[in-house]
Amino acid sequence: MKLSDKVKSLSKKQKAVIISGIALIIVACGAGYKVYADNQYQKETTLALELLGMKEKELKAIYNDSNNLFSKDKSDFLTKDVDEKTITTLEERLISIEKEYEGVSVPRGIQKDTALDYKGMSEELLSKAEKTLSAKKQVNMLFEKEAIIGDEVDKNLPIKNDLSTKNLENIEESFYVKETKSEFEKATNELIDTAKNQVKQIETAKVAVEKVYKDKVISTDQKLYDFAKKEVDKIKNQKSKKSLDEKLDKVKKEISAKKKSDEEKKESVDSNSTEVTAEDKNEEVANEQAAAQTNTEANFNEGQQNTPAQDYNSAGGGSAASNSNAGVPVQGGNSQTGGTPTTPAQPDPTPTPTPDPTPQPTVKYQGWVEDENGGYYTSPVYSSQEEAIAWVNAKRRELLQNNLLGSSGGISAVYG
């Protein structure tokens, strides 16, 4: 049987025992057996070298497996399938090899023990993998989902519900590296900062909300509400955002109710103002109509005073007394018999014609509303005040809804 076959047939423990006996053989033989001892020593040394080669090969395999725990593109990141069991398995293999080959060695100078290099490099990689995995798990716990998967990093995730400041501080203390060239450590630093900023934003929003709501609505100030809403909208965690939004919804309802009440009050005041204005206009119209009537009557009376009396006397050129015997036949008497003459009947005076009354002007109404720039909106001309007033009220409501209402409105009389 060849030596190589013999080596293969032995267990690792048997091989180790054989090699460890080399020194005993050399001592026991003495000078008489020197040739035999040298030959046996050479055979056992060859076997030891072969065993150490096998050990080196196994250590190299562990080193390669340890190196493959990390991403090829980003060597500081673990691959996405690495977990505690993966690392522990490699560590156990490394310990097992050391035990299996314990005691196997060759005299110094025969061969350099390169297997120790693979062992040391494997231990270094496995230690780095443990630290990286621990940091990855703890930083991922800050968020609703895993922020680091393999060598991919999601920096826009919301923090997990109810993340405490104390927990965040502990993770920062353990895994935040202020000065580093590692891409993985730079990523974890940034994620920790992101979580801190989100916690800070929630606290900022809470303070803003407490300006308008604390157990109940304490303010309906629109600016305070708008500021609080703006801060709440910046929150990424939906649970925290929903809690604060529910409080702001109650504030918003009261603001809307107050605004509606104020608008109704203003509308009522504006309506009363319009009615007073309409009354003033009606009084003005009445005064103008009275003045016009007075002028008409004055003109009519003046016309009567200046009309000549066209009676019978003036037409005849004298009075009845002075012209009673001026050849006018006497009715009822006998001129031949010398009867008593009677005074002739006076004709009815010519009636003075009644002048036609001065036509009264037709009064119509037109609504008007002043806008915020001092201009005016005017309505069509209506035949009744009610129509004009209705237009004014409708127009003022329209302008009020658009925040364009000026200072006044009313109706005017239009004569035609």
| Strand residue percentage | 5-15%
Strands ordered across the widest β-sheet: 4-3-5
Low-confidence stretches: 1-7, 296-341
Question: What would you call the structural class?
Answer: mainly alpha
The SSE string, one letter per element, is HHHHHHEEHHHHHEEHE
Strands, count: 5
Oligomer: single chain
- Mean pLDDT, all residues: 78
- Terminal Cα span: 141 Å
The Cα radius of gyration reads: 61 Å
Task: Please report the number of helical segments.
Answer: 12
Share of helix, binned? 55-70%
Biggest pleated sheet = 3 strands, antiparallel
- C-alpha geometry: rod-shaped
Main attributes of the structure:
416 residues, 58% helix, three-stranded antiparallel β-sheet, two-stranded antiparallel sheet, mainly alpha
Secondary-structure topology with pairs:
Blueprint: H1 3-9, H2 12-20, H3 22-29, H4 34-67, H5 84-100, H6 115-140, E1 148-149, E2 152-153, H7 165-175, H8 183-209, H9 222-232, H10 238-305, H11 312-316, E3 363-371, E4 376-382, H12 385-401, E5 405-415
Antiparallel strand pairs: 1-2, 3-4, 3-5
Helix pairs in contact: 2-4, 3-4, 4-5, 4-6, 5-6, 6-8, 7-8, 8-9, 8-10, 9-10, 10-12
